[in-house]
Write a sequence for this structure.
């Protein structure tokens, strides 16, 4: 059984959003067209409290995109984005969600960021996604969405680690930084992942 995991197709990651991925909206029709090919379709939402620790606005001496230590973990300082119950956190209305059976929210604890759909960045708290997929007899997981170099990539690594055959659908993902993604993509392939 195969599942499609749609990562963070939310207003704040789309053109005009606070952490927009260049041409991020161009993948939405592709994702919509893919869904009918899967036994299960699920999605994620970044879902941050307004005072999330990853936000540069919470640290007066840190600039957006600086690297810093957040409670012992390396962290990128992001612009405020995907704040709970705001339009920026909403899934794009252009995304067809009729086949989406579940939405897993991440980044809900202000002390720790959560790129992966499976765990927070310190792997202290699980979203329950692994168990959900196993209960549905999923053996193969294909990932798409935003952004390829962060949330898609780290979700794909955790999917491999959980034992799923894992692939990233290149035509249905976009990266914040293509150079960073090229290095990460090589690492993912070396671990046994596939790029479709």
């Amino acid at each position: 059984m195969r599942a499609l995991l749609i990562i963070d197709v939310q207003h704040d990651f789309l053109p005009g959003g606070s952490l927009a991925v260049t041409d991020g909206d161009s993948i939405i029709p592709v994702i919509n067209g893919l869904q009918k090919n899967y036994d299960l379709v699920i999605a994620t939402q970044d879902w941050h409290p307004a005072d999330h620790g990853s936000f540069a606005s919470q640290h007066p001496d840190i600039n957006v995109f600086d690297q810093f230590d957040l409670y012992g973990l390396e962290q990128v300082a992001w612009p405020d984005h995907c704040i709970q119950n705001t339009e920026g956190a909403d899934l794009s209305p252009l995304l067809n969600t009729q086949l989406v059976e579940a939405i897993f929210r991440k980044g809900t604890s202000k002390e720790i960021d959560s790129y992966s759909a499976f765990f927070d960045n310190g792997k202290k708290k699980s979203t329950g996604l692994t168990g959900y997929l196993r209960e549905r007899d999923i053996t193969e997981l294909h990932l798409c969405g935003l952004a390829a170099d962060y949330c898609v990539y780290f979700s794909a690594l955790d999917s491999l680690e959980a034992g799923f055959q894992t692939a990233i659908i290149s035509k249905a993902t976009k990266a914040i930084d293509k150079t960073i993604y090229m290095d990460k993509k090589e690492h993912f392939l070396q671990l046994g992942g596939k790029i479709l």
About this structure: The longest strand covers residues 165-174. The mean pLDDT is 96. The CA atoms of residues 119 and 126 lie 4 Å apart.
